[in-house]
Amino acid sequence: MHHVIVGAGPAGVIAAESLRRKSLVDSITIIGNEPYPAYSRMAIPYLLAGDVGEEGTYLRHAENHFSDLEIDIRNESVTAVSPADKSVSLSSGESVTYDRLLLATGASAIRPPISGMDSPRVHNCWTLFDAHKLLNDVSAGDRVVLLGAGFIGCIVLQALVEMKLDLTVIELADRMLARMMDDPGGRMIKTWCEAKGVKVRTGTEAKAVEEKDGVLEITLGDGSSFAADHIVCAAGVRSNIDFLAGNGINTDHGILVDNHLQTNIEDIYAAGDVAQGPDLSTGEQQVHAIQPTASEHGRIAASQMAGEALPYGGSLSMNVLNTLGLITSSFGLWDGVDGGESVTSEDQAYNRYLRLEFRDDVLIGALAIGLTQHVGILRGLVQTGVRLGAWKQRLMNDPSQIMHAYLACVQGSRA
Amino acid sequence: MYKSLLIDPAKCTSCLQCELACSFENEGLFNPAKSRIKVFEFEHGLTTIPYTCTQCEEAWCLHACPVEAITVNPNTGAKEVSDSICVGCKVCTIACPFGTINYNSSTGKVMKCDLCGGDPQCAEACPTGAIVYVDSDWTGYSKMRDSALEAHA
Question: Which residues of A2-40 are buried (b: 16+ CB within 10 A; e: fewer)?
């Protein structure tokens, strides 16, 4: 049995390791197209901030980790998949046959379609290559515009501040973190960032960029313009699916997979940022480009590929973020559902915010700012869908009792 | 066989010796806010429940870590955080459905119970036997595991 895994990020690597635990005799090949040891994009902000060196971003640290597990890692690009003869084509012209194939090709950074974004002074901040280029090209005090204040933008923001850059954030949506935070939460984060000296402009977009004598002129939607030395683009990512065009594998935003993480074609699976699989909260197929889903997908895809047909309930959308010391997290359907109930508590003086969303007496989503202790129980409550009974009303009266509700309802403690 | 912390809330008097012992062992100071074990009070203290990591087999924190900063101590079975590898991304803190791995703002890393290398100071400090360190079969471990598996299905 030969398992071929395309992509050397967390989903691919964890799938390979899980497959090895299940079989000592199967052949396992990972094909990754970046010229580095397998690494985590999650760690890149910490590389930029100088907290770790490049090796601090590596997924695994033992020198012979993959060879000891007899996992063959190849540095090549896969250009096509041919389900008919169960093979993948490589950029070298070679083809590799598989018995079971996992597509874990991740996502790539996208840039807004405006003029001037091809300047070498416009940077992405997604790969190790991007990070090294950024560190090489910018210096403390440079005027830098961060395009995009979503999840990735806000993670990068922290690193850019630690690099002592003169930072302006431009965000198209009317608030920061539009997809993981509501209005009050987004306002709290913006106020926090501004208090730390970051200029934040929400509800506006860059319309054009022009480079003159080594300086970028950025024109905004309202016609105003200003100068910057560099742009860091964090305008979103898109699943890497282009190489699949025309081969019969169903795609949408990502590769469509069922609750076995299998595509519409037998023996072909997908995992991680490229997979559009079941969402635990809605049952719909969604791309959840987050580390916990990549890791979960990797392990579950490996089980499926090893023939253990356990159905997968789906991934939970969740995020955690440190924006200049303000810690935010989001879980599940934090924006609520029709017919559901909601409660919030806000303490502006202490920068704390908690929002809980219920369907009947079940927690289906949550937002938290400034909550770091036992925050995982919000996942526990959403994921298990445990009925809160009388605790639902107690939480409606006082959401800060969430840990007590958890202990009483999930752990089955008395009280 | 690994040993585990067996917690009996009925014996807990909420004296918080466990929190103090834990924070002193791990942080060098008596600060319950930095304790890896936490006593929760219900009904104005009529019921108190000490709560910490069960070193669950599923190890959600370990699997979620993007940089292999959480590993299993082969002697104790504890899932331990390496401060030198942890970058402080906090993904583990939202991945753990038990909420027992937390961000420590003073170190910029995460912290969790590591069973003190096999000599848990909370159990040592507990004067009433509400926290004891015993063979795993005696604990509510299997219940926790079932709960984790159910959540995973």
Answer: ebbbbbbbbbbbbbbbbbbeeeeebebbbbbbbeebbbb
Q: Cα separations (Å) of A99 from A22, A96, A205, B67?
A: 16, 10, 47, 30
For B93, the closest of A60, A320, A415 (CB atoms) is A320
A34-78 residue pLDDT tens: 999 999 999 999 999 999 999 999 999 999 999 999 999 999 999
Fill in the amino acid letter for B56: C
Cβ within 8 Å, pair B151-A380: yes
Mark yes or no for CB contact B94/A374 under 8 Å.
no
Give the per-residue pLDDT at B145: 57
Question: How close does chain B come to A227, measured CA to CA in Å?
Answer: 33
Could you tell me the residue range of the domain that residue B61 belongs to? 3-152
The Cα A223–Cα A403 span in angstroms is 49
Comparing CB atoms, the residue among B95, B99, B102 nearest residue A292 is B95
For chain A, list the domains and their CATH numbers.
Answer: 2-108+239-305 (3.50.50.60), 111-235 (3.50.50.60), 325-409 (3.30.390.30)
Q: Is B44 on the interface with A (CB under 8 A)?
A: no
Pairing of strands A255-256, A275-278: parallel
CA B138, CA B133: separation in Å to the nearest integer?
10
Q: What ipTM was assigned to the predicted interfaces of this complex?
A: 0.94
pLDDT at A365 over 80: yes
The CATH number covering residue B33 comes to: 3.30.70.20
C-alpha dist (Å) from residue A26 to A22, A32, A186, B98: 9, 19, 49, 35
Q: Does A374 touch chain B (CB under 8 A)?
A: yes
For residue A291, the chain B residues in CB contact (below 8 A) are 64, 66, 89, 91
Relative to beta strand A215-220, strand A206-212 is antiparallel
CA distance A18 to A298: 8
Q: How far apart are CA B76 and CA A145, in angstroms?
A: 49
**How many folded domains does chain B comprise?**
1
| Sign of the four-CA dihedral B27, B33, B39, B45 | positive
Query: A331-356 as b/e, with b when 16 or more CB fall inside 10 Å?
Result: bbbbebeeeebbeeeeeeeebbbbbb
